[in-house]
Specification:
This protein has 460 residues and is α/β, with parallel strands linked by helices. It has helices spanning 2-16, 21-76, 90-97, 140-144, 170-183, 199-209, 233-244, 332-336, 367-376, 397-403, 420-434, 444-452, and strands spanning 105-110, 117-121, 127-131, 152-157, 189-193, 216-220, 250-255, 258-261, 266-267, 276-277, 283-287, 291-293, 319-323, 344-348, 381-384, 413-414, 435-436, 441-442. It folds into two domains: 83-293, Rossmann fold (3-Layer(aba) Sandwich); 319-452, 3-Layer(aba) Sandwich (Rossmann fold). The longest helix has 56 residues, at 21-76. The active site is at 114 (o-isoaspartyl threonine intermediate).
């Protein structure tokens, strides 16, 4: 209102005094120049504010990265080293000392889970199950039936305290890997016995850790605790021990009566005995009256001794896993990318890598628009299929735009044929490989290169 009054007074004086047009033009030019100067001052102020905000964001990002680094270093201290035989319990050393050279030797690396749980009543008088450290009793019914006459089995507790598998992380996988590396030359094979919720991740991690292993690592567990009638743990454990003593190499999962390639398994059932599934071509054997190994299963390689064994125990947390849905706005992934505990994102897409390329409301960004924004920030985004046998190789425009490297399009990283737990573990491997120890930050180009590379045959 004050500005309008001043302008009106200026015009009134000009008209009343009948000032020449030249004078009027000069006054208008002066006022225009004054406005331009003020506008420039305002712009400079805005630019300064933006620089301060960007600087603070940069500091915040560095602080977040520092926090990630500190967390990773703390986790590393929790890894069980198994650097020498002295790190094993005395009871295990006693059993190793008594081994016969005439029978196969299978080490069971136990970490917890349903298979070894006991039940108790909680404060509400409800029966609950919890991991126990005395699960070795699982071997008793097998020993009664003559197991010791066929295979020498040594039970090795990996942790001082058994865990529920929902607590399983890379720290636990590397602890298991360290034990395998230590005992490799003494073993015919290994069984990893534990919980099923993160078992698919754990056995996939074994392939990354031991890319050239010449002996079998067989994971197993149960759907029903050993203390309950009708438990499936005894059979699963025996089938896994048999597989670990057989002519196989690599990581596998033995569950129900199926022997599966450990890289491609997915947990699909809550209580049914066939808890896991995989694409048909990755079923490599089954158990009926005996173990039947199929011709395409990878066989034992005696040339690989502990000296020739490649061991890569490198993983890192910090992957934001997002499943896109009709229930979620496209721009939500921009907010997900601001999670200070994560450095990269894995998006589980529609179908074979498809994402939205338009929105119902014109001015609202689509997934493609958001992916482009994240690419400009050099924030890595991996696209994976939600299907067990899926491939991010879409023939639809919505999918091709997502991984297109054209300006304004998605520029996301395709996971190819890698899906499920295997893909999540690969992201953790790539994050570890791409982490710059000097800057304590993620190197975008190295992460992308690692994700696009075939490490262990995961890209088919």
């Amino acid at each position: 209102m004050l500005k309008q009054t001043r302008d009106h007074n200026f015009l009134s004086i000009t008209l009343n005094r009948q000032i020449s047009p030249d004078f009027l033009e000069q006054k208008i030019e002066q006022k225009t120049y004054s406005t331009m100067v003020q506008t420039r001052v305002n712009l400079l102020s805005v630019q300064k504010t933006i620089r301060i905000v960007l600087h603070n964001l940069s500091l915040c990002k560095r602080n977040n990265m520092q926090t990630q680094q500190e967390r990773h270093e703390a986790q590393m201290k929790a890894v069980m080293p198994f650097a020498s035989m002295e790190d094993l319990p005395e009871s295990v050393l006693d059993e190793i000392a008594q081994l016969s050279p005439h029978l196969p030797v299978v080490f069971i690396l136990y970490y917890g889970g349903t298979i070894g749980m006991n039940k108790s009543r909680n404060a509400f008088n409800r029966i609950v199950y919890g991991p126990t450290d005395d699960a070795k009793k699982l071997l008793e019914p097998l020993e009664v039936k003559g197991l010791k006459e066929k295979i020498q089995v040594i039970w090795v507790p990996v942790y001082k305290k058994a865990i529920d598998s929902t607590n399983g992380r890379w720290v636990h996988w590397v602890s298991i890997g360290n034990a395998i590396k230590l005992l490799y030359d003494k073993a015919t094979g290994f069984v990893i016995c534990g919980g099923t919720d993160t078992m698919a991740h754990m056995i996939a991690a074994m392939r990354f850790m031991f890319p050239n292993i010449g002996k079998p690592i067989v994971a197993t567990g149960s759907q029903v605790a050993m203390v309950d009638l009708g438990d499936d743990g005894t059979n699963n454990l025996y089938f896994a021990i048999t597989a670990a003593a057989s002519d196989l190499s690599g990581p596998f999962l033995m569950f129900g009566d199926d022997l599966m390639d450990g890289m491609r398994v997915h947990k699909v059932k809550h209580t049914r005995r066939q808890a896991f599934a995989c694409p048909t071509q990755y079923i490599v054997g089954h158990y009926d009256d005996q173990l039947r190994i199929y011709p395409h299963a990878t066989r034992r390689n005696p040339i690989v001794t502990s000296k020739r064994l490649i061991y890569k125990p490198y993983f890192r947390e910090g992957i934001k896993i997002v499943k896109i849905s009709p229930a979620t706005p496209s721009e939500s992934i921009l907010h997900d990318a601001n999670d200070s505990t994560c450095s990269a994102m894995l998006i589980i897409t529609f179908g074979a890598g498809n994402v939205r390329d338009e929105d119902i409301v014109e001015e609202v960004p689509s997934h493609i628009d958001c992916l482009w924004q994240l690419y400009q920030r050099r924030y890595p985004v991996v696209l994976g299929s939600s299907m067990m046998d899926g491939v991010v190789d879409s023939h639809y425009e919505t999918g091709t735009k997502a991984v297109s490297d054209k300006e304004g399009e998605g520029n996301a990283i395709s996971a190819g044929s890698t899906t499920g737990p295997l893909l999540e573990v690969k992201c953790m491997v790539a994050l570890a490989q791409a982490w710059d120890q000097t800057s304590k930050m993620l190197d975008y180009n190295k992460f992308r290169a690692s994700m696009e590379r075939d490490h262990i045959g995961e890209l088919t």
